[in-house]
Amino acid sequence: MRSILLLMVLSTTVIAFSQNNLTFQIKHQQKNPLNGRLLLLLSNNENSEPRNQITSDYRTQMVFGLDVEAWDNSQMQKMPTADVFGYPLQTLDEIKPGIYYVQAFLNIYETFELSTGHKVLLPPDKGEGQKWNIKPGNIYSKVQKIEIIAGKKSNIQFVLDQIIPPIPEPEDTDYVKHVKIKSELLSKFWGKDTYIGAHVLIPHNFNKDSGMKYPLMVFHGHFPSDFGGWETTPPPADMDTSDYSTRFGIYGYKKLQLTEGHEFYKQWTSDTFPRFLAIEVVHPTPYYDDSYAVNSASQGPYGDAITYELIPHIEKTFRGIGQGWARFLYGGSTGGWEALAVQTFYPSEYNGCFAACPDPIDFRAFTVIDIYNDANAYMAEGPVTTIERPAHRDYLGHISSTIRQSNYYELALGTKTRSGEQWDIWEATYSPMGPDGYPMRLWDKKTGVINKEVANYWKENYDLGYILKRDWDKLGPQLKGKIHIYCGDMDNYYLNNAVYLVEDFLKQTKNPFYGGEVTYGDRAEHCWNGDPNLPNYITRLRYNTMYLPKILKRVAVSAPKGSDLRWMNQSKLSKNLINK
Predict the structure, then answer these.
(1) Does 442 share its domain with 479?
(2) Are 145 and 52 contained in the same domain?
């Protein structure tokens, strides 16, 4: 996730009102009527704006949401109403007396007239990767400081008079190029011009070696603002290293990232490094920061658009080999699922996937939920009592959020699968389209009761473990030697549970045997990607190089006879990579 500095605009008015009579009135100043999700945000922390303090775990501040349609600037929207839903408190009446910093915000929706005939209201991506709190064009109020005092009433008014500015497009450099194309397939589905693209890292001596063609390495993952992990200059020797990464428990992580990026640059531009095209695909949708790289009922044919429109365009533009044996997939988390899914759904178009810490690849272990046999996603039910299901843990098993909590977080941010968050994008990708044009819910967002009809649709269309087993007679010969999966056995989101199930099947495959690998990191958290000798905070910065030995070996045994392999740069380095 990008680190973005946002300035806090603060009004210092202190207002007293009754805890049981909280009334907020909100208006905007835009000329045209607006559709969207109106958010009221409250925090007891003055260090940043409330819009930047909403998280899915126990450290969150408060948000209350309300859908608005055709909201005119002459109308005052009022909270609370019966339609307001909040997180982590569900109602405004639950807020305790005290001092708070309060802000109103509108995540603006646009109308999409789908090829299915449905008309839906969704938040378009504006170059920020579907992050509502920094989305260009969204409007918000100044922050007000208020004090809740029992027994007093007040009516607090907000004006949404602040607007988030546009984000500039990344600029081309000598090595990093930016591609954006109009997808005919997606434009037809969405009913308006729709673009996908990629950040492309071109090989050293690309212009000099004009007769050489290159293989393609496709790095899948979340929305990239530019090609990641690429630094043409080293960090300053005296760079401050007092910054602390709570995720990895180390100081100086910013300098480490820059150092690793520069080491990659030095490798890439050396005379002995293999030459290839590396790309990060840019494919945000109105539901999330990326499409999950597959065709789906509610998001459209992103799988076909990427494989049959975008990738051929990139290969033609930058002299790619343009054949399935010379394309490889890798990524972690969302990108890990995408790598395995794309390899499975387009088995002959790619020659290997390296799926690290993939999102659930078998829905019998949809994190900690068996969507086919469990009745409720939020609670494990016994004969006498129930217990909440966990959503996030650390490597010692300490829980920071539950399935219910993380889903309530999303429901406050948006109804109809429109939160732009993790559980909703799984629905937007895997679910059938409902009668209203939005994805059908896998479970009731408030109660957690699972819809078995929707679960069966997921099984037949997107449960990779089930699909591999169901179709192995056909897929097996095309996937032999191509599947590589890596996961920590203490993944924060329990993603290793599904990997175990898929591994059980793969180990039993015959005619052919799958011929790949599944490995686990001992006590490793999300997103362990396959190196048992280095910590993940280093290996996660090396995706573009760490699988090269396996890729080169794969090429050595699978490239058609007579293929031009000069790109492998048959130096001591390449020979060592192949022989590892």
Answers:
(1) no
(2) yes
Distance CA 184, CA 186 (A): 6
pLDDT in tens, 358-371: 999 999 999 999 99
Decide: 482 and 490 in contact? Cβ < 8 Å.
no
Please answer whether residues 466 and 362 qualify as being in contact, where contact means their C-beta atoms are separated by less than 8 angstroms: yes
CA 327 → CA 234, 274, 299, 340, 461, distances in Å? 31, 15, 25, 13, 24
Kindly report, residue by residue over 281-310, the tens digit of the pLDDT.
Answer: 999 999 999 999 999 999 999 999 999 999
Q: Assess contact for 303 and 192: CB atoms under 8 A.
A: no
- What are the distances in angstroms from CA 244 to CA 250, 353, 394? 6, 33, 17
Q: Which helix (H) or strand (E) holds 452?
A: helix 452-462
- Dist. CA 328–CA 551, nearest whole Å: 8
Distance CA 42, CA 144 (A): 10
Domain coverage including residue 448:
364-461
Instruction: For residue 4, tell me if it sits in a domain.
Output: no
Alpha-carbon distance of 320 to 295, in angstroms, equals 24
Read off the pTM.
Answer: 0.93
Q: Which amino acid is at 137?
A: G
Proportion of the chain in helix, strand, coil states, percent, rounded to 5: 25, 25, 45
Buried b vs exposed e over 527-556: b needs ≥16 C-beta within 10 Å?
A: bbbbbeeeebbebbbbbbbbbbebbbbbbe
Residues 292, 309: Cα–Cα separation, whole Å: 16
How many domains is the chain partitioned into structurally? Answer: 3
Identity of the residue numbered 69? E
Report the DSSP pairing between strands 216-220 and 277-282.
parallel
In this structure, are residues 464 and 340 in contact, taking their beta carbons and an 8 Å threshold? yes
| DSSP result, 130-162 | S-GGG-TT-EEPPEEEEEE-TT--EEEEEEE-E
Tokens representing 90 are 């569900």
